[in-house]
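Milestone M4 deliverable, item 7.
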Amino acid sequence: MTSVPIPALSEAGRALCILFILLVPLTGAGLALINTGLGRSRSAAHSMLVSLCVVAVAGLVYFACGFAWQGYIERPAHVLTIAGKGWNWIAKEPFFFRGLRLDGSPDSLAAWLQMLSVGLAALIPLGSGADRWRLPAICASTALLAGCTYPLFAHWVWGGGWLAQLSACGLGRGFVDAGGSGSIHAVGGLTALSIAWILGPRHGKYSPEGVPAAIPGHNAVLVLIGCALTVVGWLGLNCAGAVLFTGLAPAGVVLVGVNTTISAAVAALAAVMITRMRFGKPDASLVANGWVGGLVASSAACASVTPAAALVIGLVAGVLVPLSVELFEVRLAVDDPAGAVSVHAIGGIWGVLAVGLFARFPQPVAGQWIAQVAGIATLLGFVLPLTYGLNWLLNRLLPQRVPLEGERLGMDVYELGATAYPEFVTHTEDFMPR
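Output delivered:
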């Protein structure tokens, strides 16, 4: 069955794509700062350290085996024949990038981008597990994500897999996800939900009656600086993904940049209005979540919608994210300090659906919304149970949550032996006469 053809890159297009990929780590830095700022001060150093460890583990595991399962368009893959049609289920690549020519070809650029993208997906669960998730368990969970969950779904979407092949059944252009609303963010967000369920809420978060207590993030400035970094990296992520996975011509990246910016901007303003109406004043942390939620929602459709549609996508994301944060915390008793589930899972699923509602290629394509719904059903019906099951088994072998003492002392002292802000501690002897 047919799939998306390999994009042809000119020398200028290759150089532009490399530049975009170089921007992507700024998104990781921004997410790390957001997770840290929304956690407790006594876990700040731990949060930043595990962010570095997660990116390192994810990249290395993807290098070792992740790309072997994901592959790229028109590269070798295992095919399952159903009703006379061949459906591409998993890539058939050598481990450790063997057989991949690292020469600036589209497949080599895609592999490089994915080494960074899988790190972004692995950073997302850190927000839901903040203040109580152990470093060894984090690294092990990241290895499962980078080596199994992420490359499997990414192959179906970006590697010429069966979701992309839905175009052969008359369902639009198959499942479309240019910048990763589903493949990166929904996968990471559903993993974050699994982690929050397995770890349980932080001690003191809920009263015996189930009423949640407010545990505000310790540094709103870090959170807002993180937002500024994410938008720069996101422009690179969306542009590179659109070129490498949808065949967008380099000139089309202007549309991608405009759509990404509009979606983030309107989502932040929508979150300002929603929180002002709900609480009387804007809430900095929820506005930051709205900003990132707008970026998440923009990714899937960034190359296939008009700027007016991008405004609507961002507006809906800016309303959905803060309301879903409240829903998960108050109604569903999910303790998610950074709002990772709402931002990345809910925002990502909305972004995927938005392709079916608003995409133009350059004209609307019949059946596109069905392909997008099929992708959402796969995320909820396969990826969520898979990532939960893997982490549930891991929790039986390697307990993921720190003991009560670790939460009381803080993750910095308990796992690292030192705090991020030692000057906050006043030592009486420093002021004694000598």
